[in-house]
Write a structure and sequence with these properties.
Strand order of the largest sheet: 2-73-78-75-76
Largest sheet: 5 strands, antiparallel
Length: about 850
Amino acid sequence: MESCHRAARTRCGARVGVLCLSLGFAFIAGGQISFERLRSFGFIDQLGDSPAAALLAGSDGWLYGTTIFGGVSDKGTVFKIGKDGAGYVTLHQFTGTNGDGSSPAAALIEGSDGELYGTTYSGGNGNAGTVFKVKKDGSGYSVVLSLVTATRGANPQAALLEGSDGRLYGAARSGGFDGLGTLFRLQKDGGSFELLHDFSGVPGDGKTPFAGLIEASDGALYGTTHAGGDANAGVVFRINRDGSDFALLHSFTPASDGQGPSASLMEGSDGVLYGTTRDGGNAGLGTVFKMTRDGNNFAALHHFGQSGDGQNPYGGLVEGSDGAIRGTTRNGGTAINGTAFKLKKDGAGYSVLHHFDGSAGDGYRPEGGLVMDQAGNLYGTTRLGGRANIGAIFKMNSDGTGYAQLRSFTFNGNDAMRPYASVLEGSDGALFGMTTEGGSQEFGAIFRFKNDGSGYAILHNFDPDTDDGINPFGGLIEGSDGVLYGATRYGGGADLGTVFKINRDGEGYTLLHRFTNSPGTGRYPIAGVLEASDGMLYGRTISGGAADGATIFRLNKNGTGFAIVYSFALAGGSRFDPYSNLIEASDGALYGTSYEDGSDRAGTIFKINKDGSAFELLHTFLLSGGDGTYPESGLLEGTDGALYGTTSFGGDSDEGTVFKVNKNGSGYRVLRSFNSAGDEGYWPNGELVEDAGGLLFGVTYFGGINDLGVIYAISKDGSAFSVLHRFAPDSAQGENPISGLTRARDGGWYGTACYGADINCGSLYRLAPWQVGGRASPAGFHLTITGGIGQRYAVDGTAVLPPTWTQIGLLTNLTGTAEWIDPMAGGTQRWYRARWILP
């Protein structure tokens, strides 16, 4: 959780609520909340993690492949992607439960029936792996065989082969009588399973077949084992399709031949067998070899390991129309992250086609080898690298030119993830937010959605390759011009942060300011920005001031007029850590908190004029006396004119507080000391928000059920406190809310959770309008609603919980306060809620 702890120190401005139900009894004791998850971050059909196998070029022009990890259960996926990188989708997400497979490590094959067939390393009824099939559109998935260790073999990591007889042939890495692997065949519907060979590891036999079989032009099957043979360095073997006439054709000698063949053989256009060894050879880093089908004329064509050369080829070979063979090495190259190579079938003309550099725009550890389409284009995967360092798909021409990354695998399918700031309701009624991570470039995104969770869209993906800002930790604001404004902590060319604007439809994204290393100009704006009453934007940076301390800056909404308003000193305990937003109070001054300054380095509350004058510390937090310490979130000016906020630590149990202070610094008091012992939550984060009835609402990052955080309400005098919602450990709701709530015009409270939900990327949630309980007396139940003049409300009632709501009233607020009496008599218990009816 450290990433959230450090990242969550900024919040966007809270919106004041507009609806209160005044019932004449203690609301806190009787209130109930309807919690609804609106969205789980992460495009589930776009998931995948760690592709280790070669791709399949399907007859329909698409590329198909597998990932070992990823998917909702993180047990691997089957995916397809266009040759231009478009149209990526997961066709199946393995669960490893109820007989499903887990961790597919092998390439797919396309059967003569047009369906895809593959294997999983584990899962199935015996957790020894499976053979599965799925249609190319993702339908019709089924497990056609569960391997059983003793009788069928276990843990296949090799691709299947469809023989000329229409049967599937496979190799299991382990299992069998001696536990050293097997060869098997079966019908495509899973029937007629036959064990063709049970490896024993004795002289004259191999063991642990990592690679799949090929059917050569003579109709026999050929393959390799990773170990076994005379030197226990692996073998090449031949076997008939019915399992007869098994013959060991070659035992590898490590120093001269290579050692540990892990990939399938290739029969060249000349009828000769070609292959690779993972290790061995002159430098002990692998070889390319050839031999005739009778086992004679073995030759090592290339010994890997020279300076800048590739090392350790895990994948197999492909032959191009030019007669040359091509492959990949897992390691080596100029960046020691793997290579793609080419050589002639006689071993001459060896060259490295591509050196994988491991950058975000490239991958590394190409373990699966290459596939070539009819046009001569090469495609492959890398186990690691890409934006999220969990693999990539690439393409290049047959001569190595035109290299391009087609897809970078992500934890969230290129969706936004890790929302650290509050959402914003725009003047158009849509809700907007930002995430610090995720997006197509993995550096954060801006998103929009409707208040029912529909209409979700990514408006902008932050991209470091264009000198864009990256990693926004604060929230958005809507300016008086209807445009959205925000800041990013990093990026902008110098990687020191930016201020930007974007229209609500996602158009017009513009960087207004890039922070630089120029002395005294600020850097790293971790919080969001504020539009003050003078129409200018104000914000804060962590450092870069006159003495390299924190700053307050301002600029016009068109990006001109940038200036440092105030530079904080570093001496004498003034370690201003500006993790929260500024607010402009009703007196026109700016107010804020600092996390780790003051005499005890426990934080402060300060006030400053917009021109930088009259800086004043209103309160210095102390490490004694039950005071709060380390305020990570910003302030709220209540309707009573006082300032309210939270500290992450301190208080009676050192688990955080809610505090109050007047704008002149007087009247400071702790309203609430959090205590984890009572499941009430602790480590409060996010700005507080106030309902029109005067209650304050907030969230805690920890506490509640399984330490996943809570939503709470508290009166402004601290006398009443209630936990409204405890985030549950079922992961569906989301976990660890770190940003404050936003009250929208529909009467709902909206927020984000940092973790949890479907794939642990966080969630968007809503609290429905208040459900409040009471008993209608013979005189009726008196309901008072306060809010804006002209607002219309529907009043719903229910006699049961969970509620079944029925509209029982309708009223318009004509004076600022609207009253309604439930005519139901007899003391029957009823719960009520009021809903704002939008124009």
